[in-house]
């Protein structure tokens, strides 16, 4: 397995752990008001990548170019499991045509300050976010590579996602 897939698997397991904790009664200690949620999400959607495109434009471009391989599910506010405070905006998405609830990838996220501004990004070990930050063509290549590595069965027309 490639390092990027292992990182994705680790991130997804952390997300699943957070869902399990929330099922056991974990609740955020500070819930953002709807107007603040909208502001945080708008700041991420309008954030400019290295090629000058906004995050919204990059994602729309890849959705258009790879309709059967990539689809954004939603932008959402993420809460710190230890403090219960909002601290990132997550972007969940599907790779492939298998778009069932619970099959979304959740490895894209922007850390936020308490004022709702994107905080300093650490792109180490985050290939999807790193590609997104580079713009349309880089993110399209990353989606293609991930799809080829994880969805296509060698020597077969069968697809696993």
Write the SSE topology.
Elements: H1 3-23, H2 34-45, H3 55-65, E1 70-79, E2 86-95, E3 105-111, H4 127-134, H5 136-150
Antiparallel strand pairs: 1-2, 2-3
Helix pairs in contact: 3-5, 4-5
Summarize the structure.
By secondary structure, this protein is α+β, with helices and mostly antiparallel strands. The chain has helices spanning 3-23, 34-45, 55-65, 127-134, 136-150; strands at residues 70-79, 86-95, 105-111.
Overview of the structural elements:
The chain is of the alpha+beta class and 161 residues long. The protein is 42% helix and 17% strand. The chain contains 5 helices and 3 strands, in the order H-H-H-E-E-E-H-H. It has helices spanning 3-23, 34-45, 55-65, 127-134, 136-150; strands at 70-79, 86-95, 105-111. Strand 1 and strand 2 form a beta hairpin. Helix 4 (127-134) runs antiparallel to helix 5. It is globular.
Percent helix among the residues? 40-55%
What kind of sheet is the major sheet?
Answer: 3 strands, antiparallel
Order of helices and strands: HHHEEEHH
Low-confidence stretches: 1-23
Assembly state of the chains shown: single chain
Structural class based on helices, strands and sheet pairing: alpha+beta
């Amino acid at each position: 397995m490639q390092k990027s897939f292992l990182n994705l698997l680790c991130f997804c397991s952390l997300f699943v752990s957070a869902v399990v904790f929330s099922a056991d009664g974990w609740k955020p200690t500070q819930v953002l008001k709807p107007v603040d949620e909208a502001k945080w999400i708008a700041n991420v959607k309008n954030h400019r990548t290295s090629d000058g495109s906004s995050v919204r434009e990059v994602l729309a471009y890849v959705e258009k170019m790879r309709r059967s391989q990539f689809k954004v599910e939603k932008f959402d506010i993420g809460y710190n499991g230890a403090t219960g405070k909002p601290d990132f905006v997550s972007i969940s998405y599907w790779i492939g045509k298998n778009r069932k609830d619970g099959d979304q990838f959740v490895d894209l996220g922007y850390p936020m300050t308490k004022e709702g501004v994107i905080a300093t990004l650490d792109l180490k070990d985050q290939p999807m976010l790193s590609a997104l930050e580079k713009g349309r063509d880089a993110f399209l290549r990353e989606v293609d590579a991930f799809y080829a590595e994880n969805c296509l069965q060698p020597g077969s027309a069968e697809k696993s996602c």
